[in-house]
Inverse folding.
């Protein structure tokens, strides 16, 4: 059952971040949500995750979906080792080892988060979300601090998720959108507006923007 | 090899929190510093004794030490100490328990907070002597001590733990919610490690205050077999040597209890920080 937003409004003080937003998400596939900072992308995925409540309007079928998420912050438990941070969620040591290996941090299994580099912590947060069994995967700037080679090594796992369920990817990096997204939604605002654009237009636009910038 | 590196990194981190060693780690002075400090203050005390030169006003360290040695050879001294310790520890443990339960209640249930906040504020503002005198009217002398220590400990534990619970990182709680951790897992893995420093500081502070208030309550309520009663009798009969010896016993026991508590709590706190490789 598709997730549907119906006339959803969300405000912070005087700032209207979402204004009667209505949209329908596909059942599977990766949606690349791309747009400037502060336009309301994170608010949208927090509403979908149930971390915030809309002021008005409704989100349909959300309760039928279990959610997994990579937050903007790593949100690791600082008093647990990398392995225990994963195993707390999985409750399965072999699965924990598998995902630590997949994300190439198996040698840091016994390290605490404050002993890991920013990139390693990000991979741990990614491993936690990618391996967690859920119907919906929300990724809020998931590859922050990772080099291009590592990103490309992780892409297949995200694509695998996208073939089985809905994945919403929020990012500022056009290469991530082009490398992963099945659907590209360009965001503007606030209040948040979403425009569906095709891959050719998106790549042309960003090549042009890069050229202009240079 | 990796594990050894991590262990040494952890040890380095722990050392940062230890006392700075200004005179150099291996120097002769820093190794025996506590001996010099003790000798300095004992010397000053002896000097004051010689200057005052009146046993009724000030006993000498030698007199106090010899009285202490004679006391520890008597069964009644150990009975007194044990009874005082058990009364004060009973009040302390009851205060810890009630303060913790109340903190959880007042943070998560607003009506409980509204109900108890004025009472706890009143307890904190009331002089301990008022409570001791009131309690003397209400209950037996043994219970007065337990009650007074309880009243000293409970508000401190309540205030610190409430603060600790409120300061638990909401982002970690959101993470726990998203990944559908059970209530037990959230308490064990998020709340307990977050509030443990607050609990530790509350327990150590309140033990010192509770101990002093408990002895004061014993002085006023004079239960049989109590350090407070011996202090009171020493004052009445102008036995300054006994007064100072029992005061020294009270101080030594307070320091000892504090050390035992710190070690116990550190061990408990360490158990929240998972040992590498031992998944739970």
């Amino acid at each position: 059952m598709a997730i549907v937003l119906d006339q959803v409004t969300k405000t912070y003080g005087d700032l209207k971040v979402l204004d009667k937003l209505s949209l329908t998400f596909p059942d599977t596939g990766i949606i690349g949500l791309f747009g400037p900072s502060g336009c309301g992308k994170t608010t949208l995925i927090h509403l979908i995750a149930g971390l915030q409540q809309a002021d008005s309007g409704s989100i349909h079928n959300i309760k039928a979906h279990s959610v997994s998420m990579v937050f903007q912050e790593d949100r690791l438990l600082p008093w647990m080792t990398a392995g225990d941070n994963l195993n707390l969620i999985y409750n399965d040591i072999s699965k924990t080892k598998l995902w630590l290996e997949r994300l190439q941090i198996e040698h840091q299994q016994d390290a605490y988060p404050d002993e890991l580099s920013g990139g390693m912590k990000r991979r741990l947060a990614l491993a936690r979300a990618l391996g967690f069994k859920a119907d919906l995967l929300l990724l809020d700037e998931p590859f922050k601090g990772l080099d291009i080679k590592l990103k490309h090594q992780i892409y297949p796992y995200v694509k695998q998720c996208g073939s089985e369920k809905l994945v919403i990817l929020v990012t500022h990096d056009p290469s991530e959108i082009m490398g992963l997204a099945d659907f590209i939604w360009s965001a503007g605002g606030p209040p948040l507006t979403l425009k569906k654009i095709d891959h050719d237009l998106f790549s042309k636009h960003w090549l042009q923007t890069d050229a202009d910038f240079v | 090899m990796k594990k050894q590196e991590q262990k040494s990194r952890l040890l380095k981190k722990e050392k940062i929190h230890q006392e700075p060693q200004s005179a150099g780690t291996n120097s002769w002075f820093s190794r025996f510093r506590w001996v010099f400090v003790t000798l300095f203050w004992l010397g000053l005390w002896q000097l004051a004794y010689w200057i005052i030169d009146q046993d009724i006003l000030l006993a000498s360290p030698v007199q106090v030490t010899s009285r202490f040695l004679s006391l520890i050879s008597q069964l009644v001294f150990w009975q007194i100490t044990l009874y005082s310790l058990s009364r004060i520890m009973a009040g302390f443990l009851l205060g810890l328990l009630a303060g913790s339960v109340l903190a959880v209640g007042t943070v998560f249930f607003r009506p409980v907070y509204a109900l108890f906040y004025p009472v706890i504020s009143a307890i904190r503002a009331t002089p301990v002597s008022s409570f001791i005198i009131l309690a003397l009217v209400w209950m037996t002398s043994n219970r007065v001590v337990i009650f007074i220590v309880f009243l000293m400990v409970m508000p401190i534990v309540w205030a610190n733990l409430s603060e600790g619970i409120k300061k638990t990182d909401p982002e970690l709680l959101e993470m726990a919610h998203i990944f559908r951790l059970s209530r037990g897992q959230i308490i064990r893995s998020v709340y307990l490690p977050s509030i443990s420093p607050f609990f530790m500081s509350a327990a150590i502070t309140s033990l010192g205050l509770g101990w002093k208030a408990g002895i004061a309550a014993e002085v006023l309520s004079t239960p049989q077999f109590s350090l407070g009663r011996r202090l009171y009798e020493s004052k009445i009969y102008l036995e300054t040597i006994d007064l100072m010896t029992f005061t020294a016993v009270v101080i030594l026991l307070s320091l000892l209890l504090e050390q035992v508590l710190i070690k116990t709590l550190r061990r408990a706190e360490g158990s929240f920080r998972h040992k590498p490789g031992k998944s739970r």
Remarks:
- The two ends of chain B are 24 Å apart (CA to CA).
